Structures are given as structure tokens and as C-alpha cells.
Design the sequence.
């Protein structure tokens, strides 16, 4: 790092969070008493990156130039292809491992079938269909979709693996190369495993003499879930080592897919999973017919959509109209200033499409939710498909080392919460704290643990409390290790009856978590044995976890915030008015809360 008071770049040896700011210690920089000198982050500038190659470079997997690049076989000597994870090097590894593990009896993997889909606009994902389960084995169909705008140069490189636990690979299924030659950006592939093959991978011993239906039933009883994960590899520098820049799927079902459910989890299994803290920012699973919450509320919840939960690490500032306009002008300048971006450690930055949203907030006549800081809302985005009804709750907040985190959940409804005929079923969903209903548990947690604790009353009914219309201007900022920070600037106008109020807010949040395995590792009171399944949602206790501030992607976010906020506003983060939930502020403006 370059420091204004030092003659040459120095190596960072440590960091700490003090209030809203990140401070760093540098190699050899001690005061006269031999104590560590801590430098505020706005005095530091990132020095020019140096490629070290090999394993050290693989630990820094994001591209450092605009767009993503892939190191191909032609760029490195044949002897380096395996170490550099080039397509040929990986293919050789796959073949050698397959021969070593399977010898003459490997699982059946279909030839990849490529096609083109230019309208695909998400980042990249794997989509898995429900498994085909027979007496002899399991067949998995996977589809990999790549966004043409984000594909690597000269093409994508996507290993697909089978896993039993997060980051625990059982088998390398295939290696895909979307965009190579005539290959399209979509690829379909199938893999079929026998139960004997799966038992071999798991180093499991079935009951003696079991076969057919008995072997199938034993396997499914022991292993209720598997995961299929796809990773998109890129190099940090041209000719460098290819390493994961993005992944989708897996046993945690990132992006709502990838989890292979062989049977529903039991009540006791779900409760056992709650002993392990879930520290991922987002969790979710598509609602299929076997989810207990869907069985009970099939008339309320939209099938096939996620019931998702999240831990939000956000910094939202209520800045006023002039500062809001100044921040947008500064972001436009930053977009065109490569040197300034490099000084902040930004690898890539782009302006996203503006969003126009309408949020309808529901509450009781006495404002029992808003008065406790709870936002229960429907969000409608301009251009939503007909029938979309995204229902969410902003729940309790927790603070660690002056950083705030909030618990949230969202799902898709079939019914209207404010309808006299349909509303009671939605109210029932929001009140029912059954194990498999994270939405209601987050609402209940916020109500019972607020400074004015209460619980859902028998006579409570939901009605429209206020409507907030917003224009959101967004930027995506990519950092190392695949971490993406989202910048949003909102002009939000709330109305209730004849009254209205407008607020101008700027928000920073972790949009895409970094690819660091230890950041998502669970902790808690489990026995330490490997769990063969994962719960698909956060529970309230997950929020009470000081480890969030130590996650590497959050520290990247905090470091960027400490540099970006002064650039935008000329002030440090702790000199701005920290917001949180615009609906609460706007409800006060309108006189709904006192």
C-alpha cells in the first residue's frame, strides 16, 4: 500500500475496525515505543499489483482488468497447464482422477449439449431438475447458463462437481467450455450414479447383502441431500492461474438451485441443523411440494419460488437532495477515472439499469410493526411479470463493533395481505412459527425482542399503512475474490392519504459474496460430525454472530466504504446520518409514528 507520509509502498500486516472505519498496520511501521502504528484507510492507496504466479496467484482469483480473462493452453507451456488450471490441464486432471477412482466402471455422463440464449441476463447459474430416483441409482440433469455480457475471454471454463457438504467435493462430473468455438452460452448435461458408486464416493458401507429397493432406501435414509455445483474460472492476470470467480448451486442451493433433495428433512433434522450457525449472507430453497411450510400454505405461497432469508450488511445514509445529486455526479466521474478506481482497489465498475419500484407497507391500525422498526411490504418493480407478488419482512438488527446487520426474508404470495377474504391466510402465515417457516420466525423474533416486546395479537389485521415510490440508480463494484459491492441512490416518496414526504438516500451493501470458503463455515453447538444436509434458511439466532465483521468480504466492503464515502461526500462515514429502514423514517415524516 502507498501511504502519503511514507517514501515507498509497504506491506499490510494487520487490520482492525474502529467505529465505522478500517485501520491498517504496515510492515516495519512502529512508533518510538515499539507499538504498532495504525493508519486510517483513507491515507492508503493500493500499490500496483504484482503477479507472483502459482498457488499465491490462485489465492487471488478475480480479474484485475475490465472484463474476465481465461488462461488458455496456448498461453503457457504444456508443463504448466495443470498448475495454471487451463482447460487442457483441468481435463487431464479430470481424466486421471476418473481413472484412479473408477477404473473401468465410471458414472455415465452425457455429452454436453450447447445452445444459445441471448436473453439470459443474470450473472451465471446452474439449474438442476429434481433427481430421477430408481432402484438402481440417481440421474441428475443440469443446465448451465452464462450471461453473454459477462463471459470470459476467449470463453468460459466451468467445472461441475458433486458435493456432500459445502466445499467438500465427492466427484468431478464434467468440465464445460461455453462460448468456445460454436458452443453457445447454455449447456445441458446429465450424470447417472448407481448407489454402489455413491457409497464408494462417500466411503460408506451399506448393510450387508442389500441391493435394489433396500439399498436405495438405506442410501436415501442416510443421505437426504447431495449438491451439484458449477464454478466459473477466470485468471487474475493474463496468463495467470485460473481460479473460481463465481459459483452457483451446491448443497446450499446458491441461487435457488443445485441442491439435490432425495427426501424431505424431518423436524428433528431441521432442529439439529439450527445448532450450527449459518453465516452466509443469503439462503433459500425453491418451494417444492415436500416442504412442510408449503404443504401447510400451498394456497398462499407460489410454488417453485424461493422462500429466501438474508443477513444484510448495509450502510444506508439519509443525505438530502444536494448531497444525493453530488454523490451521483461523483459516481459518474469514478466510472471514467481508472486511476481513482485502482486507488480504491476496484477491479471493475458498471452502472446498472435504473429501477422504479413501488413498495406497499402493511401494518395493523395501531402500527404495531412500524413502531417496532419492522417493515412488512410488497415490492413491485417496473417490468415485473404479471402475477408477481414479492412479499418481504425487514426484521431485527444487531450491532457488532459499531457495524449493523439486519435479518430479512422474502417469498412470493398468491394472496393479498390487505384483502378481507384472502388476508387471514397471509396473517396466519406471518404468525405461524413452525420450524420450517422462517418468514414468520423472523417477524416473531423482531416483535418479541424489540425494545417494546409483543407478539401477534388475536385481533390483529393487516392493512396498507403507506406506499413508497422510488427511483433507484445502481452501480456494481467488483473487488478481489469475486466480492461485489452494490451502490444504490434512491429518491423515495412516501404517501399516506393526502400526505407525502420525500427522502434522498445512498446505500452500500455486499451484493455478491466473496469466494472464500472459511467465510461460510458454520459454527455453533453441533457435535462436530459432518452433517449430511443443510437447512435452507436463516433462523433468528444466526443474526447474533460477531463473526460477520471478520468475514473477508465484509472487511473488503468496509475498506471500500471508508474510501468511497469521503470521495462521494467529502466526509467520513461516521460523519453522515446513518439510516436503516426508509419506511420507518418516512412513516415518522407522515405523522404515522410518534
Sequence:
Amino acid at each position: 500500500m502507498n501511504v502519503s507520509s511514507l517514501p515507498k509502498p509497504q506491506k499490510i500486516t494487520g487490520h482492525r475496525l474502529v467505529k465505522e472505519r478500517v485501520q491498517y498496520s504496515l510492515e516495519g511501521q512502529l512508533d518510538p515505543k515499539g507499538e504498532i502504528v495504525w493508519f486510517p484507510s483513507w491515507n492508503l492507496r493500493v500499490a500496483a499489483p504484482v503477479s507472483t504466479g502459482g498457488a499465491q496467484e490462485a489465492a487471488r482469483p478475480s480479474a484485475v482488468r475490465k472484463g474476465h480473462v481465461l488462461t488458455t493452453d496456448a498461453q503457457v507451456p504444456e508443463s504448466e497447464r495443470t498448475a495454471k488450471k487451463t482447460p487442457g490441464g483441468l481435463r487431464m486432471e479430470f481424466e486421471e482422477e476418473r481413472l484412479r477412482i473408477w477404473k473401468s466402471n465410471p458414472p455415465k455422463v452425457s455429452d454436453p449439449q450447447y445452445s444459445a440464449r441471448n436473453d439470459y441476463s443474470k450473472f451465471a447459474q446452474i439449474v438442476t431438475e429434481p433427481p430421477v430416483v430408481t432402484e438402481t441409482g440417481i440421474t441428475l440433469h443440469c443446465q448451465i447458463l452464462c450471461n453473454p455480457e459477462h463471459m470470459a475471454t476467449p470463453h468460459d471454463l466451468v467445472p461441475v462437481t458433486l458435493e456432500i457438504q459445502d466445499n467438500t467435493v465427492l466427484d468431478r462430473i464434467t468440465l464445460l467450455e461455453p462460448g468456445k468455438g460454436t458452443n453457445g452460452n447454455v449447456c445441458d448435461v446429465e450424470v447417472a450414479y448407481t448407489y454402489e458408486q455413491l457409497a464408494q464416493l462417500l466411503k460408506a458401507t451399506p448393510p450387508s447383502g442389500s441391493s435394489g429397493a433396500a439399498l436405495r432406501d438405506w442410501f436415501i435414509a442416510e443421505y437426504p441431500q447431495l449438491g451439484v455445483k458449477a464454478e466459473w474460472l477466470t485468471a487474475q492476470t493474463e496468463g495467470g492461474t485460473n481460479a473460481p470467480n463465481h459459483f452457483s448451486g451446491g448443497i446450499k442451493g446458491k441461487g435457488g438451485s443445485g441442491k439435490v433433495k432425495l427426501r424431505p428433512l424431518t423436524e428433528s433434522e431441521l432442529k439439529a441443523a439450527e445448532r450450527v450457525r449459518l453465516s452466509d449472507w443469503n439462503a433459500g430453497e425453491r418451494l417444492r411440494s415436500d416442504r412442510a411450510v408449503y404443504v401447510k400454505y400451498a394456497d398462499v405461497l407460489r410454488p417453485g419460488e424461493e422462500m429466501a432469508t438474508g443477513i444484510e450488511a448495509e450502510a444506508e445514509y439519509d443525505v438530502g437532495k444536494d448531497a444525493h445529486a453530488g454523490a451521483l455526479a461523483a459516481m459518474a466521474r469514478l466510472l471514467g477515472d481508472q486511476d481513482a478506481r485502482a486507488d480504491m482497489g476496484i477491479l471493475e465498475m458498471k452502472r446498472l439499469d435504473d429501477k422504479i419500484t413501488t413498495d406497499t407497507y402493511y401494518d395493523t391500525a395501531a402500527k404495531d410493526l412500524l413502531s417496532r422498526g419492522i417493515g412488512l411490504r410488497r415490492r413491485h418493480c417496473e417490468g415485473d411479470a404479471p402475477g408477481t407478488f414479492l412479499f418481504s419482512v425487514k426484521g431485527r438488527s444487531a450491532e457488532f463493533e459499531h457495524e449493523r446487520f439486519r435479518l430479512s426474508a422474502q417469498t412470493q404470495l398468491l394472496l393479498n395481505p390487505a384483502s378481507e377474504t384472502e388476508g387471514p391466510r397471509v396473517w396466519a402465515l406471518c404468525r405461524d412459527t413452525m420450524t420450517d417457516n422462517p418468514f414468520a420466525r423472523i417477524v416473531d423474533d423482531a416483535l418479541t425482542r424489540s425494545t417494546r416486546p409483543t407478539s401477534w395479537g388475536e385481533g390483529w389485521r393487516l392493512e396498507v399503512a403507506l406506499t413508497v415510490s422510488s427511483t433507484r440508480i445502481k452501480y456494481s463494484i467488483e473487488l478481489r475474490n469475486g466480492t461485489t459491492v452494490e451502490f444504490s441512490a434512491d429518491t423515495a416518496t412516501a404517501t399516506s392519504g393526502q400526505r407525502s414526504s420525500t427522502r434522498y438516500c445512498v446505500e452500500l451493501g455486499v451484493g455478491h459474496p466473496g469466494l472464500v470458503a472459511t467465510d461460510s463455515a458454520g459454527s455453533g453447538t453441533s457435535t462436530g460430525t459432518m452433517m449430511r444436509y443443510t437447512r435452507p434458511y436463516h433462523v433468528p439466532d444466526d443474526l447474533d454472530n460477531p463473526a460477520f465483521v471478520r468475514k473477508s468480504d465484509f472487511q473488503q466492503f468496509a475498506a471500500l466504504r471508508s474510501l468511497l464515502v469521503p470521495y462521494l461526500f467529502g466526509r467520513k462515514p461516521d460523519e453522515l446520518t446513518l439510516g436503516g429502514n426508509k419506511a420507518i423514517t418516512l412513516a415518522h415524516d407522515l405523522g404515522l409514528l410518534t
User: Anything to note?
Assistant: The longest strand covers residues 463-478. The radius of gyration is 25 Å.
